[in-house]
Write a structure and sequence with these properties.
The structure holds two protein chains of two kinds.
Chain A lengths: L3 H40 L4 E9 L5 E9 L1 H7 L3 H4 L4 H5 L3 H15 L3 E7 L4 E10 L2 E8 L4 H18 L4 E6 L7 E2 L1 H7 L9 H5 L4 H17 L3 E8 L5 E13 L2 E11 L1 H18 L4 E6 L4 E4 L1 H6 L22 H12 L1 E9 L5 E9 L1 E2 L5 E9 L1 H23 L3 E7 L5 E6 L3 H5 L3 H4 L2 H6 L3 H13 L5 E10 L5 E12 L5 E9 L1 H22 L4 E7 L5 E6 L3 H4 L4 H6 L2 H6 L2 H17 L3 E8 L5 E12 L5 E9 L1 H45 L2 E6 L4 E4 L1 H7 L10 H7 L2 H17 L3 E8 L6 E12 L5 E10 L1 H64 L5 H29 L7 E4 H11 L1 H4 L3 E6 L6 E4 L1 H18 L4 E9 L3 E8 L6 H4 L19 H11 L3 E7 L3 E9 L7
Parallel strand pairs in A: 33-35
Antiparallel strand pairs in A: 1-2, 1-5, 3-4, 4-5, 6-7, 6-10, 8-9, 9-10, 11-12, 11-16, 13-14, 14-16, 15-16, 17-18, 17-21, 19-20, 20-21, 22-23, 22-26, 24-25, 25-26, 27-28, 27-31, 29-30, 30-31, 32-34, 35-36, 36-38, 37-38
Chain B lengths: L4 E6 L3 H11 L3 E6 L2 H10 L5 E4 L8 H11 L4 E6 L5 H9 L4 E4 L4 H11 L4
Parallel strand pairs in B: 1-2, 1-3, 3-4, 4-5
Helix pairs in contact in B: 2-3
The chains are: A alpha+beta, B alpha/beta.
Chain lengths: 1059, 124
């Protein structure tokens, strides 16, 4: 199928391919540049800078190198001071093997004269170091930093180099051509290679499309169809999934050949661009990494302008975006504007430059910057200066701080009056003292070298303290141990020294327990303590033997109180154990009488403020109710820390207080007595006054009748009461008797005689003719007999007062009661009349029927006599029968009506309840006939009870009438009677409207009615109830609204006679 | 006797019916019924009956109800009421509308009945 045409077409396509390869190359270049910058950033950023001098063997071979200088960062990393390391060889500084490890590198740079970048794990400092070593004659400078954490990033970068290599390979190109029916193309070997297919497989167009990634198939098919149908060439990138299931990116290009507007041939190539694709993404990643690096990164071109600045850089200099810096000159970012020029000069000479400088932010503020610059070239061969930098201001500060702290610590350590030591419990069970400072000799007089031997040290411990001390030391053989011990030891002069030891233990990596501790000579304190104890004991002895209590109390500034001492007297006085009181002084406060507590606090606070002597008497209250009095006195003194010390004594003054109070009580009683008397006197005089006032107000007259002389004395009021002038009054007994109403004389005179003879109190009521007004007045009189020493009545005296008004009121009241009674009777009568009213209509109708028979009989006889010639005896008989029936019925009705209207009070008649009910029903016929079904369930036994027939008729009529009224249209009433042993029960049930629950209680109240005014009296049930009660019976009602009412009457069969 | 006019008497009291039969029987052929329902059946059977005297209070239909029902079913009847009660508003209404020709109160004045029947008899 190969033709010349197709070859030429392939050539044309290869031209296009070249373009894409050029793109690849460009990408690669950019990648390399970025990689260089990236590496510079990560590998060369100089945090540590140190200058080494070579030391050679005699034959000129490099033996090792010694430190000529090092920057603070390096020293910090190493944990060394400058003076300790200058002039020392690398092995001396970092330990043996360092020379051996780095000799190849050093040799390399010295021999080539080229800087060398290297990454090594440095055991001495346990670091991954990313360093750059630059040879300078017999010296070399190493710069770099700890990249332990960035190690992985570096590894990833190495991988990227590998990728770059692969992108260098020539991309494989496959070709294919479609003709004829456009079904099965021709493929080149390269095409099969890309698809990873056997060379003879020859897949169809459809099969070939299926090699594309499912997401790309549609796109591929569309390009193909557009090329074939419209002659459009294509050029696109797509993913393939090869026969071996490898994902590949391919660039697909196609060129259709058209003839007469119709596609006759389609030639295409595809190129594996997988690597390029990967590179693209790698470059993106690197750019991102630099852009987002925390280190500043910039590139300055040969014209001295920034051509690249990353975000960290712009941020560091106080700009919001790199764009603000790109295109400007670096001078303005330096405190020294001449610095960039100097840097370029240095770079031109040395190729690389590391330094610290003062940099300047956008706002003019300055900061410390550590930078690394390199000389490089752009694609045009022009010089560029990539630089990475870091703000070290904070670090500087931190270093300064650290130094300060270390200095302070040193000063403190030196000023501590103790021995500082390190003691190690080894894992194998042995122990050692690796360090003990020179102060050791001050404590026991032995040198620190001697003291480093634990066995020696332990041998100096006082025998009495040896066991406990050793025990405590051995107990501290664990991680996080805290050791504290006070013990005695012998010094060089065999004198006893008190030592206090404090140490903290912690486990090291190997499992040894390392104690760092300090030992103090506390002999002086100890001795002072013992002396203090002795004097305290003395004080206590004195205090405890004092009567009452002695105490020392501390009031702290934070409000806490502390009882420092209290003598044993507290056990007698406060009845609290001394030790317990010290542990919890609240026990003492609890004893203070609640009523005295506030005053107590106030007086203590006042004395505390003034620091004046204090005295306070207060009560103690004991749970059993006893009270003691205490006289407390104290002196407050203020300590330097602001707390107040109270030295106080307390004495039991209960006895004295009791005596005082007794006196007080007696005094008070006396006062009370006087007061009481005075009050009584006032009360009496007031009562007396009231009495006179009352007497005058009541117009009571006072009289005195001397029985022996018959003289009657009156006061002024008496004359007024009787309406007599003084000169009209004879002054003799008869004057009184004559003034009485004639009807009242006998009774009152005999009452007076009884008082005289029997000395009974006189209480009389009489009428007089009031002379002045001519009115009849009612006078009440009370009196007493006065006797001589023999018991004979000598006089009667008393009072008189006018009760006319009261009498009138009494009369009125009686009249009112009578009126009420009359009204009640009238009401009852009216109820009866109302009941009769109910009856009348029914009775009239009932009478009409029998009367009709009579009239009918009469008419028939009359007609017969007048119109028929022959007298028919039998017929006359019949008509007479009618008359008889009518008359009988009428009689019966009238009789039962009589029962209702009868008004005797006889309660002993025999009342046949069945008869009464039947009578009632007869009377009520018009109320229920043809409307209500009456069911009678009468007991078979006689239903007779003693009572009043009329009243029982009235009662039952009422109840039955109510039942009928409850049924608005048709309904049923059941009347049931039953006989109990001594009672007769009547139950009247209707299925009418019922009574609402609220009304049920009220229905028996007088005047309660639900009927319109004038229809009912409201007395029916009330009277019924009282009638049943009169018969010693009971009446109960049950009702359910809309369901009916049941009335139950129970009457005794025999009358119990009321008392 | 064939020319006697027929009178239907309705009352639940047998003695009353007996009295009516005896007294009115002299001039009329008296037919009786004990209640309204029975009376309606009688009227249906015997269309010749023109005059009807009814009691007011009866079991089942009362007198007035019976008159209303009967005048609905049958034309050309004349109704009279005989009752022990005084005239109620309802009865007065029936009198005013002519549903009932006359009202007689017990005890009965038979002359009055005789006159009324004479007066209202058809053909007279």
């Amino acid at each position: 199928m190969k033709t010349n045409d197709s070859n030429s077409q392939l050539e044309a396509l290869e031209e296009k391919l070249k373009t894409s390869e050029e793109r690849l190359a460009e990408a690669e270049l950019r990648m390399r540049q970025l990689e260089g910058q990236y590496l510079a950033l990560f590998h060369h950023l100089a945090e540590e800078v140190h200058l080494w001098k070579l030391i050679r063997e005699q034959d000129g071979r490099i033996k090792t190198w010694e430190l000529a200088d090092a920057n603070p960062a390096a020293l910090r990393t190493w944990g060394k001071k400058k003076e300790e390391v200058i002039g020392k060889t690398t092995d001396e500084i970092f330990g043996k093997g360092t020379t051996e490890q780095f000799l190849p590198i050093v040799k390399g740079i010295v021999e080539t004269g080229e800087p060398h970048k290297w990454v090594e794990y440095f055991k001495a400092t346990n670091q991954y170091l990313s360093m750059s070593s630059i040879p300078v004659g017999e010296y070399f400078v190493s710069t770099g930093k700890d990249i332990t954490e960035e190690k992985l990033a570096a590894k990833a970068l190495e991988e990227s180099e590998d990728f770059l290599k692969r992108t260098g390979e020539i991309a494989k190109v496959g070709g294919w051509q479609l003709t004829g029916d456009f079904d099965r193309p021709f493929y080149t070997k390269g095409a099969y290679d890309i698809l990873e297919l056997p060379y003879d497989s020859n897949p169809s167009v459809e099969e070939a499309i299926n090699f594309y990634h499912t997401d790309d198939r549609k796109k591929v098919a569309q390009y193909l169809s557009e090329a074939i149908e419209k002659g459009s060439p294509f050029n696109f990138e797509a993913r393939l999934l090869t026969a071996q299931d490898n994902l590949k990116w391919v660039l697909v290009m196609g060129e259709p050949e058209m003839l007469n507007g119709k596609c006759v041939k389609l030639t295409g190539v595809f190129q594996d661009i997988t690597n390029r694709k990967k590179t693209d993404s790698r470059v993106n990643m690197l750019t991102k990494a630099i852009d987002h690096s925390l280190n500043g990164f910039d590139v300055v071109d040969h014209e001295g302008k920034f051509i690249y600045v990353n975000k960290a850089h712009s941020r560091m200099f106080g700009f919001s975006d790199p764009v603000e810096i790109i295109g400007t000159s670096p001078e303005k970012l330096c405190a020294d504007p001449a610095f960039p020029e100097r840097l370029v000069k240095n770079l031109k000479e040395k190729g690389e430059y590391v330094c610290e400088l003062k940099a300047k932010r956008k706002d003019g503020s300055e900061f410390d910057l550590l930078m690394y610059s390199r000389l490089d070239y752009d694609e045009n061969g022009k010089e560029i200066y990539p630089t990475s930098s870091i703000d070290i201001t904070e670090r500087r500060k931190t270093e300064e701080e650290k130094r300060k702290v270390q200095n302070q610590l040193l000063q403190i350590t030196n000023s501590i009056p103790g021995v500082i030591y390190q003691f190690v419990f080894h894992k194998d069970g042995s122990f050692s003292m690796p360090f003990i400072n020179d102060k050791a000799n001050e404590i026991l007089g032995f040198s620190s070298e001697q003291m480093k031997d634990p066995a020696f040290l332990f041998s100096r411990i006082h025998p009495e303290d040896f066991e406990s001390t050793m025990h405590s030391i051995l107990e501290a053989n664990h991680d996080q141990a805290k050791w504290t011990k006070t013990f005695r030891a012998y010094n060089k002069d065999e004198k006893v020294v008190w030592i206090a030891g404090h140490a903290l233990g912690s486990a090291d990596e190997e499992g040894n327990i390392v104690h760092n501790g300090v030992l103090f000579d506390i002999s002086e304190q100890k001795e002072a303590g013992i002396a203090l104890k002795a004097s305290q004991q003395q004080y206590q002895n004195v205090a405890n033997n004092l009567p009452g209590i002695v105490l020392r109390y501390q009031h702290n500034t934070d409000g806490r109180n502390q009882l420092l001492f209290i003598s044993t007297g507290v056990e007698t006085l406060f009845e609290v154990d001394a030790q317990e009181a010290i542990n919890n002084n609240q026990l003492l406060w609890d004893r203070v009488h609640k009523e005295d507590l506030a005053a107590y606090y106030a007086s203590v606070n006042e004395a505390s403020l003034k620091l004046s002597p204090w005295k306070f008497e207060h009560r103690l209250q004991f749970p059993d109710g006893r009270v003691k009095w205490v006289d407390m006195r104290g002196v407050p003194s203020k300590k330097t820390d602001g707390s107040i010390i109270w030295d106080s004594i307390g004495l039991d003054i209960t006895k004295r207080k009791e005596a005082e109070r007794e006196l007080e009580r007696i005094n008070k009683n006396l006062e009370e007595l006087v007061e009481e008397r005075a009050q009584k006197a006032i009360k009496l005089s007031r009562e007396l006054e009231l009495y006179w006032l009352a007497a005058e107000h009541a117009k009571s007259g006072v009289w005195y009748y001397n029985v022996r002389t018959n003289a009657l004395e009156w006061d002024n009021t008496m004359y007024e009461l009787f309406g007599i002038d003084k000169d009209e009054f004879s002054g003799a007994y008869e004057a009184w008797e004559n003034s009485l109403h004639p009807d009242d004389i006998e009774e009152n005179v005999s009452a007076l005689q009884e008082t005289i003879t029997e000395q009974k109190d006189l209480d009389i009521l009489f009428r007089i003719n009031h002379r002045k007004s001519g009115e009849i007045r009612h006078i009440r009189g009370k009196g007493k007999a006065e006797t001589d020493d023999k018991g004979n009545t000598v006089a009667v005296f008393g009072t008189n007062w006018d009760v006319t008004r009261e009498m009138k009121l009494a009369v009125e009241r009686e009249r009112a009661i009578d009126q009420l009674k009359a009204a009640q009777a009238q009401l009852i009568q009216s109820e009866k009349m109302a009941s009769l009213g109910i009856l009348t209509a029914g009775v009239a109708h009932e009478l009409n029927n029998p009367l009709n028979y009579i009239v009918g009989g009469y008419t028939a006889i009359h007609n017969h006599l007048n119109e028929d010639e022959v007298l028919d005896k039998a017929e006359i008989e019949e008509y007479l029968d009618w008359i008889k029936t009518g008359a009988d019925r009428a009689t019966k009705i009238v009789k039962s009506l009589n029962l209702f209207s009868r008004s005797n009070e006889d309660n002993t008649e025999v009342c046949d309840i069945h008869q009464i009910i039947d009578d009632c029903l007869l009377m009520l016929q018009n109320k229920f006939k043809d409307r209500i079904t009456i069911t009678k369930e009468y007991t078979g036994t006689p239903a007779e009870v003693p009572g009043n027939n009329g009243k029982l008729h009235q009662a039952l009529l009422n109840l039955l009438a109510n039942a009928m009224d409850a049924i608005s249209e048709k309904g049923e009433i059941t009347i049931e009677t039953s006989s109990q042993k001594d009672r007769l029960n009547i139950i009247i049930s209707d299925n009418g409207c019922g009574i609402p629950e609220g009304n049920l209680k009220k229905v028996m109240d007088p005047f309660f009615t639900t009927k319109p005014p004038g229809v009912g009296t409201g007395l029916g049930l009330s009277i019924t109830h009282s009638i049943i009660q009169e018969h010693q019976g009971s009446l109960t009602m049950q009702s359910t609204p809309d369901a009916g009412t049941q009335v139950k009457i129970s009457l005794p069969k025999e009358r119990k006679h009321a008392k | 006797m064939q020319n006697k006019k027929k009178v239907l008497c309705v009352d639940d009291e047998p003695i009353n019916l007996l009295i009516l039969r005896k007294i009115l029987g002299r001039k009329y052929e008296v037919i009786t019924a004990k209640h309204g329902e029975e009376a309606l059946l009688v009227l249906e059977k015997d269309p010749e009956i023109e005059l009807v005297i009814t009691d007011m209070n009866m079991p089942g239909m009362n007198g007035l109800e019976f008159v209303r029902e009967a005048s609905k079913q049958f034309l050309n009847k004349k109704f009279f009421m005989l009752s022990g009660y005084a005239i109620t508003d309802e009865i007065q209404g029936a009198l005013d509308t002519g549903l009932i020709y006359e009202y007689f109160q017990k005890p009965t004045d038979y002359k009055q009945i005789d006159q009324a029947l004479e007066e209202h008899s058809f053909g007279n």
